[in-house]
Amino acid sequence: MRRIVAALLATSHWRVSISLATRYSLLLTLASCRAGLHGDWHMVECNPNPQVFCIDDAAFHGDGTYAATTTRGGRTLREIGSYQYNGFRLTLLPQAGGAYRYQAALRLSGLEITDNEKRVLLQKGRNPRRAEAGENGAAPGAAPHE
Fold first, then answer.
1. Which long-range contacts (CB under 8 A, 24 or more apart) does 48-51 make?
2. CA–CA dist 37, 68 (Å, integer)
3. What's the pTM?
């Protein structure tokens, strides 16, 4: 994907029609797709309901690994594995096997993840109620893993 954008930006037509600031913005966006996910996230909205599909919390690490509490088809699990994110698609690869592919977008309101008609909105940071209770293996008041 980066090579395609770089090739487009290198052509004379694109040099004329796209400002320098826009080109830098495009390149920075592509280079930092995964970087934008780094850190802890918690669910603030889940549709149609959390028993069908939900990501209660997730921690995405810079080395491409993650830990999350997920619900799929009524089954809630704490899973760890690796992830891939390209700016519009998030793929979770749990250590237990399988691959889960979602449409995903970083928005001002948070990280929006959709799977057909199912949608989860995650907000950056630990869930304050869970952090205070010491859940998710965190001690109360523990700093988030970045």
1. 48/117, 48/118
2. 13
3. 0.66
